[in-house]
Amino acid sequence: MTTISGVASTISITGMGDNFSAQQTVTEVNAGLSLIELHITANDGQARPAPRIQISWSLPMHDIYSLWHSGSDRNKNIPADWSHGNIAKVTSQMPVVSFYSYHGENRLTAAFSDALEAVEIKAGVSEETGELHCSLNLFVESSPELADYMATLRLDTRAIPYYTALDNVQRWWAEQPGYEPAPVPEPARLPMYSTWYSFHQQLEPAAIEAQCRIAKELGCEAVIVDDGWQTINNERGYAYCGDWEVATEKIPDMKAHVARVHELGMKYVLWYSVPFVGQYSKAWSRFNDRMLYTIERLGAGVLDPRYPEVREYLIQLYEKALVEWDLDGFKLDFVDAFRAEPRFPQPPLSSTSQVSTAEERDEQSIDRAVDRLLTDIMVRLRAIKPDILIEFRQSYVGPLMRKYGNMFRAGDCPYEFITNRVRTLDIRLLCGQTAAHADMLMWHPDEPAEIVAQQLINVLFSVPQISVLLDKLPATHLEVVRYWLAFWRQHRDVLLDGTLMPAHPEVLYPMVSATNEDKYLIVSYQDNIITLPDSIPEELIVINGSLEQRLVLEVTADSGSRQMHIRDCRGQSIQQAELTLNPGLHMLNVPASGTVTLQKH
């Protein structure tokens, strides 16, 4: 057991049993930041099933206001220590928690180096002592064979902004061997059009191309063609997945269709449900003894990636599609379904089926097999097209997923722009340069223009995806979309690449700022008093992300005279004047979903 600076108790490791031993080596990087290297070995040196190992520590509940973790979504509460923890592994969530003060200052950010095997992270308050009890439970979903295991627990109690502590964690992960993030091509960082909410499975080439033509003019650079291209069944199930052949009744010539989209100047990304094999596919009979489980309501089974035949089948599907149809990328969906699932049955075997044996597998761990599959997919696709686009959806957006993909999209939240804001910011905090994408934006055609603008304003700090029938929108909606996509492009240097500072996660990030050398951009999503920094760059942009008709600025240091320009949600000029930013409160009449730019003379 080892005492760590800033932690009230020792770091203890339990659960080794009689067959394993554990050692700890502590490195204090600087005051408040420690790395605890764990070395677990089998006593006889022979590989054997890993036990359920627990690493635990505690610290006083002093000036801790809330908790952030990658799966907290709209609930950032601090649980009791008897509550269940959160499980993170290769295809789900991230092994990190961050506790912070009212002012967003880090109190404890704990991260684990092993993002492959399932680990349960528990952190909660003790009713008896008022302490924060924390633990990591290793190998909670499987017991991989191991003789020697090394991992590092990173504990950060420095008084720095919580978002800085999290950014340091993502950088630390990215430096680990085998965790190097995939390159991010420029198209991954530009707005896209998606067919999912606008078409669902009812796809027609001419209709898609018509939307692409408008989307390109509005500022989109790629189309993501979602579920439906592979089946004539439109019931939104997965019974026909697995063969991944084009439903020619819908798309008679996929290659020609892709070529026509390319002629419009747009990239083409195609959806695949990676693990699912439907009961009406030809692949069902081939792989029905190589599945992890079946889901009756979906009419599909989940392939077992521990078999090399399964992995090679999937990789060759994507290689073939990439070459034959000249695709630019893939939306690889449902990879979190690769797991042991006792709730669902194994698929029934036909009388002619031969039961696969464990000896035919070249991996015994599902998570390691998934890592091998997704790694090989990226390597082989990039060998054909180095700038390949790969999208993954929340919650499979962890540190290892950055190695396999370059676009992370917020989990589905149709219309719900507040949730979209929370989820995109949660991704941004730990995805580094990997492109964070909003869930596809959709709305009713009778919405007021200000509400349409809210869809875009709430995801400004991510890459927008649009998924409405653009030719059915009223002219005012098209004005809103055109203006905000142009605004986003103009200020992408600060929105995506500036220093991101999201305030108060516990109340859904009511104010978010980003800055670089030339710009300071603030979005206020509620009727807040917006405190400006003492030193303001050449350009200050404040966005009214609420439906109020005003913004209130608090100036703490004399910032001189600025040229002010106020615009409404469609970008139309409302007022131009000179504003002297002397200390005190300044109330500005800014329309709902409007902007004010304050430029130095």
Automatic annotation (TrEMBL):
Keyword flag Iron-sulfur: no
Coiled-coil region: none
Record-linked InterPro entries: Aldolase_TIM (IPR013785), Alpha-glycosidase_related (IPR050985), GH (IPR017853), Glyco_hydro_36 (IPR002252)
Keyword annotations of the record: Glycosidase, Hydrolase
One record GO biological process: carbohydrate catabolic process
A molecular-function term among this protein's GO annotations: alpha-galactosidase activity
Keyword Hydrolase: yes
Any Pfam family matching the protein: Melibiase
PANTHER family registered for this protein in UniProt: ALPHA-GALACTOSIDASE C-RELATED, GLYCOSIDASE FAMILY 31
Identification of the protein by name: Alpha-galactosidase
Source organism of the structure: Dictyobacter aurantiacus
